[in-house]
Amino acid sequence: VDFYETVGSTVYHHDLHTDAIHPFWTDELPSGSVNTGGFPNQAVENLWSYPVVDDVFIVNDDGSQTYVESHPGEVTLHVTWQRAPAAAFSVSGMTAPTLLPPEFGGLEPVAQQPFSGRMAWDTAVGNFKAVVFADDGSVMKRFKISGVRTIASLVGTEQIGAFAQ
Amino acid sequence: MRRSLFWAFGLAIAFGALAATARAADSPDLTTIGLEAPGLVGQDQPSTMGDFTGKIGYAIFNRDNASGFHVFDADMRFQQGTALVGGVATRGLWGLT
């Protein structure tokens, strides 16, 4: 989750991510934090006070970013995938050969795997809150945004790799 | 950093071109590769977790001029199903934050 904050003439990028080796990487979610009872027409993801790290950067005029500091934080979110408007379609192929596509600077190679499944476009709506703490535990900053709609959203069922249940 | 990435997503959707984001697992036992959304039916298309079968939801959020701050970006993904973890089929729930 990223917030870009303007203070005076300075733009700060708050990069809130799980405390992993690489930011934004997939992490195991708490049991019960996703409800897929209405899947594929509805699915709900809830995270409450989920621990994150806030890496703060200054956004330079040329678009580059300069790291400033890091603080512990928590993210609370509610995302609803709802009412896929179009029929599901089949997908298949090979997974990407790198962890980030070259156009975004990621070149770490990974083994490609076959995938297949059925996916559908839908509309998701999200509510997000974040709290960032100082070293003494006091609240440094709060962010909140409600009712934000996706610019792209998918739901579906897939099998990836050689694994078969 | 990611702002330009998400604008790229928007453009990719509008023109039906292929854009991509990718992530890796923070567990050495899970080889998450990523998920590529727009363009859809084609190669390199949704590739979330290695050796995984189950349900997937993916959403990209972006809003400019949000109250109190400048830009908001998030991509959310859940993967609910079974993956091989340490060689053992494990039911679980994984996602981005």
Provide structural commentary:
The complex is a heterodimer of chains A (165) and B (97). In chain A, strands 1, 2, 4, 5, 6, 7, 8, 9 and 10 form a nine-stranded antiparallel β-sheet that branches. Chain A has 165 residues and is an all-beta fold. Chain A has no helices and ten strands. The two termini of chain A are 33 Å apart. Helices cover 0% and strands 61% of the residues of chain A. The mean pLDDT of chain A is 84. The longest helix of chain B has 14 residues. Chain B has 97 residues and is mainly beta. In chain B, β2 and β3 form a beta hairpin. A three-stranded antiparallel β-sheet of chain B has the order 1-2-3, covered by helices on one side. Classes of the chains: A mainly beta (165), B mainly beta (97). Chains A and B meet through β1, β2, β3, β5 and β6 of A and α1, β1, β2 and β3 of B.
Low-confidence parts of chain A, pLDDT < 50 over ≥5 residues?
Answer: none
Percent of residues in helices of chain B: 10-25%
Structural class label of chain A:
mainly beta
Shape label of chain A: globular
Content of β-strand of chain B = 35-45%
Number of strands of chain B: 3
Binned strand content of chain A:
over 45%
Order of helices and strands of chain A: EEEEEEEEEE
State the assembly state of the protein chains: heterodimer
Q: What Rg of chain A, in angstroms, do the CA atoms define?
A: 18 Å
End-to-end Cα distance of chain A: 33 Å
Chains forming the largest contact? A-B, 87 and 75 residues
| Secondary-structure class of chain B | mainly beta
Give the distance, in angstroms, between the N- and C-terminal Cα atoms of chain B.
17 Å
Q: What is the radius of gyration of chain B?
A: 15 Å
Point out poorly predicted stretches of chain B: 1-29, 39-48
| Tally of individual helices of chain A | 0
Coarse morphology of chain B: rod-shaped
Please outline the major beta sheet of chain B.
3 strands, antiparallel
Number of DSSP helical runs of chain B = 1
Helix content of chain A: under 10%
